[in-house]
Specification:
Layout (H helix, E strand, L loop, with lengths): L1 H16 L3 H5 L8 E3 L4 E7 L2 E8 L4 E8 L2 E6 L2 E5 L6 H5 L36 H6 L3 E5 L2 E4 L10 E7 L4 H20 L3 E7 L4 H10 L6 E2 L7 H4 L8 E6 L4 E4 L1 E2 L2 E2 L2 H21 L1
Parallel strand pairs: 9-10
Antiparallel strand pairs: 1-4, 2-3, 2-6, 4-5, 5-6, 7-8, 7-11, 9-12, 12-13, 14-15
Length: 288
């Protein structure tokens, strides 16, 4: 029965695809939960439903859909509500996606026993020479595995060329507000640039507080062990306050900072810089 209902909705979606955005706007049951920006686009920032500014969205940014109209797709990015032209997103691809294939029957033959992979084990892929940051972080990281804090296998960083060092703490109100935004940005960036990673550098008052912060906010990135939080090669990048995000390359060279010329510009500026820097690095690599 569920399969039949899904197919009926799908037929309606295809019909709308051949129609207009206004028709889709009148059929909210077909709206996807989110859309992804497919090309750089100028989005309108909304406050109380009215235009209040604009922002540039890079390809790969995701919006949690809140409305669709003839003017475009409205959605949430962090604490902002924005509207972007539908043709700059994957809206039509999402509503026209075919239903998932039914899983193939599983044979009742007992599989051979294999050793369980350790928590946070690195995926199988060709290795490249480790960067200075990868070598530096070996044995010094923790992360969430099944909702619990566990040692993080730093070999997962093999191939990472850019790091966002996130100086933050659970007691910091602005940090708790920004972290959910950063998690959304991280998911969007990683989907396009797997060569990027974030590492939490805790300014918490205890190891227990740091672990609670990781769990409560469900951080998808690794963290420097609490005992290593003053590691000189990392601590030298810290600003005078938090939240502070610093973008460095694989050798630890600073590329963007939340503090510039003694002035706090905030971590949002670093996120926007990361999109630009990663895109340019990809372009240069492709040109070689």
């Amino acid at each position: 029965m569920k399969r039949l209902l899904f197919m009926l909705v799908l037929v309606g979606a295809v019909a709308v695809h051949g129609g207009t955005l206004a028709e889709l706007a009148a059929t909210p049951q077909l709206w996807p939960a989110e859309v992804t920006v497919t090309a750089s686009a100028r989005a309108t920032v909304l406050e109380d439903g009215r235009p209040a500014g604009a922002m540039l969205l890079g390809a790969g940014r995701s919006l949690a859909v809140t409305a669709i109209s003839a003017e475009g797709v409205t959605g949430r990015i962090g604490r902002s509500i924005v509207r972007v032209a539908a043709d700059k997103t994957d809206l039509w691809q999402r509503i026209s996606a075919p239903p998932p294939a039914a899983p193939a029957p599983v044979a009742s033959v007992k599989p051979p026993s294999v050793a369980a992979a350790p928590a946070n084990a690195a995926p199988a892929r060709p290795r490249v020479p480790p960067t200075r940051m990868e070598t530096l972080l070996q044995g010094k990281l923790i992360g969430l595995a099944g909702g619990r804090v566990a040692p993080y296998d730093a070999s997962r960083l093999n191939g990472v060329k850019f790091y966002g060092l996130y100086f933050s703490a659970s007691w910091c109100g602005p940090c708790r507000e920004f972290t959910p935004e950063l998690i959304a940005d991280y998911a969007a960036i990683k989907a396009v640039h797997p060569e990027f990673e974030i590492v939490l550098v805790s300014w918490d008052r205890s190891e227990a507080d740091q672990h609670s912060y990781l769990r409560d906010d469900a951080m998808p990135w690794p963290a420097l062990r609490f005992s290593e939080r003053r590691l000189p090669e990392i601590a030298r990048h810290a600003g005078s306050g938090i939240p502070c995000l610093v973008l460095v390359d694989g050798e630890g060279k600073e590329l963007s900072h939340s503090y510039r010329w003694g002035r706090y510009v905030g971590p949002r500026e670093v996120v926007e810089d990361a999109w630009k820097i990663l895109k340019e690095a990809r372009r240069r690599a492709a040109a070689k």
